[in-house]
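Quick check before the chapter quiz. The format below is the same one you will see on the exam, so make sure you can read both the input and the output lines.
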Amino acid sequence: MKKYSSGLATATVLSVIVGGEMGFAQPSNQKEMAQRHFEAAKNAAGYEVADLYDHLCSRLLVGASLPFGRIIPQDNDRDPAKFHAEPVKVFDNLYYVGEKMQHGASPSAWAITTSEGIILIDTMCENSVEDEIVNGLKKMRLDPANIKYVILTHGHNDHINGAKFLQDTYNVHLIMSAADWDMVEQNKNFRGPKPRRDMVATDGQKLTLGDETITIYLTPGHTPGTVSLLIPLRDAGQTHLAALWGGTGFQFSAESYNKQAERFRDIVTKAGADVILSTHPQLDKSDVRLRLVEKRQPGDRNPYVVGNDVVRSYLTVAAECSAAAELRPDLYKGYLGR
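Here is the expected output.
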């Protein structure tokens, strides 16, 4: 599909005052071009990527009136009884140790086992790291003391607030981009314990532990230094490759998000990734697929194996929705104001 936008900086935007607030008047052709991106995203989404379409395009269209995942978080959503989920072995070397999906802000965490220890992806919240990750690993007969590395996909509280506990308890190495280390350190309003700055992720970095090598890519857009991952997986003698898109919404920059979604789509296409993972359970359908994994019988296809076409479609939805946001600053303002 032809790309109709390259960034807000090049868009023709006329500012007007509406009802005492700053609004935006746009040429009709700009709105028409944005509509083409919405339609392309919808066509790419289908069933498999519908949740990401809602999370990005639908929220962009209705702005602040749509809460995370269309579910308003309860006041007591940080009660362990509300977020607790039992761990699930998803692939031979991949475990879900994240929270139960309550709403769109519910975080995920993934543990990859190797011949020399465990690589963890994200640490969730301060009061869920022990319940979900530490106790979850133990239930899977894995020793949390064998966690060697933690890849932090980005520096938001719901993904890194458990990191300091793992640093202090198990002396793990934390890996996050320089931009997000800076963001966390400079944030005077950061809620929860700040982890100590440790390893810095670089674009294209190969993290090898034992028989596993994860490739890290810098994909800013959700935050200044969000990272996305390629993760080799094994399942009953078969090999697969997971693409974990570290960015969910485009809260930092729709323009950067768009460029990186297109770039990562090219990467996963060439690599042949056939599994989608996310940092939130509703965005890779983990709220459904985890239950399907538990019911899986010998010989059944792994529910997470969706094929390269779906993985590409996932990144296409991300790219098209963010392209529409670039062309519609009026909608993007409401999206950011959610």
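If your answer matched, good. The chain has one domain: 68-336.
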